[in-house]
Amino acid sequence: MKAKIITIDSRNINRKEIKQAGEILKKGGLVAFPTETVYGLGGNALDARASGKIYQAKGRPSDNPLIVHIADMDHLESIVQEIPEKAKILAEKYWPGPLTMIFTKNEKVPLETTGGLDSVAVRMPNHPAALALIEAGGGYVAAPSANRSGRPSPTTAAHVAEDLGENIDMIIDGGMVGIGIESTIVDFTEEVPTILRPGYITQEMIAECIGQVNMDKGLIPENEHVRPKAPGMKYRHYAPKAPLAIVEGEENRVIHTINHLAAKAQAEGRQVGIIATDESMDQYRGGIVKSIGKREEEETIALHLYEVLRQFDQLAVSSIYSEAFHTPKMGQAIMNRLLKAAGHTVITVPEQNEE
Ligand code: TXA
Ligand code: MG
Question: 298-318: buried (b, 16+ CB within 10 Å) or exposed (e) per residue?
């Protein structure tokens, strides 16, 4: 089956086409759609068979639960046991938006959708085409990121077509997404609300609204051996085809080290890929250099991360070296994804280097 691709203008939604897409969902089919974070692969969340199809199309392990997307606050009430007061406050502030919250589910949500868990992750995305599709499809759309399992999340419809074009019914092309990394996940089934995945909405922003919020211990880079609570966070996700290493340290030393590694590879007849910034890219002497954006513009860095990783998959590079991006707000989310893509391979350049 080859996916039908429709183009939707977010400022002027074609209701007839969205209705067609909604019909596919109601019949148990799969429709990929844009959200503000990344593209999602949607199926009816209340239909166990549709969830099964999502796992199959993605090649995703069936213990990795799906996020249920809603377009209306009343729909949250109808699928969870209870909504804690603090979750209501966060929803008020950040929904629709790049925030997913986890609650104890009720019997309406099949275990196939939640990977066998008695909790359910819920999000109201901030994208007109997504909201229109959710409404047209019956109100509850299970949607993981629309990539083949293990590939970088898709930020354009072309990425979706590349990974899933042969396995799903429809792709809604709404252009490039706005954020580029997946939503922040906050678990409300814990005594203290806990972040299971960092994203655009930071720990600080959440704490400002509801007070104490913990970070899942498995997310802290030093705790590499602690298993993250979100099943999906334990996999070596977003893995580019060539091995990736992050090079950390003082900027000039990092550039020098990567140049050295690139020269060494070239001497052995290999080509390396380099993930740089607009400011640093001209200082690299070998390899294929791609800029992820301006170092000061962290939102641009987040937006281009997965795209750059995919570009290197198209090129025959033997390894990839990336600068680190510990930016003020989204740095935690960006580095979480980059570290996973690198399988936690980090080369730390000593500060002082006497040569
Ligand atoms: O931005 C996003 O969240 C995108 C767009 C499409 O909405 N979706 C997305 O879904 O990133 P996915 O399936 O790629 O990632 C969902 C993550 C996984 O790590 C999964 O293990 C975790 O959420 N998750 C889902 N339900 C959970 C639950 N009940 N308990 C713990 N973790 C859960
Ligand atoms: Mg994903």
Answer: bbbbbbbbbbbbbbbbeeebe
Other CB atoms within 10 A of residue 266 CB:
14
Residue having the nearest C-alpha atom to atom 13 of ligand 1 = 144
Q: What is the pLDDT of residue 223?
A: 77
Q: Do residues 205 and 338 share a domain?
A: no
Of all protein residues, whose CA lies closest to atom 18 belonging to ligand 1? 232
Residue 39 alpha carbon, nearest atom of ligand 1: 6
User: Which ranges in the chain belong to alpha helices (H)?
Assistant: 15-26, 48-58, 73-77, 85-94, 128-136, 157-164, 203-210, 251-267, 298-314, 331-341
Q: State the distance from the centre of ligand 2 to the C-alpha of 334, rounded, in angstroms.
A: 14
Query: Block means of pLDDT (10 residues each) for the chain, length 355 residues?
Result: 93 94 98 98 98 96 94 97 98 98 98 97 98 98 95 96 97 98 97 97 98 93 81 74 95 96 94 97 96 97 96 93 97 95 93 62
CA distance 21 to 26: 9
Q: Which ligand is nearest to the CA of 144?
A: 1
User: Which CATH number goes with the domain that contains 263?
Assistant: 3.40.50.11030
Q: Whose CA is closest to 58, among 164, 152, 133?
A: 164
pTM of the model: 0.96
204 with 280, same domain: the answer is: no
Q: Where are the beta strands (DSSP E) in 56-206?
A: 67-69, 99-104, 119-123, 141-142, 170-173, 184-187, 194-197
How far away, in angstroms, is 41 Cα from ligand 2 center? Answer: 10
- Conformational region of residue 227, where left means phi above 0, alpha means psi within -120 to 50, and beta covers everything else: beta
* Distance (Å, whole) CA 294 – CA 307: 15
Q: Whole domain around residue 295: which residue ranges?
A: 244-354
What is the model's pLDDT at position 232?
81
Looking at ligand 1, which atom is closest to the CA of residue 230?
A: 32
Ligand 1 pocket residues where CB is under 6 Å: 35, 37-38, 40, 64-67, 100, 102, 114, 117, 119-121, 123, 125, 143-145, 182-183, 185, 196, 229-233
Domain boundary among 234, 257, 290: 234
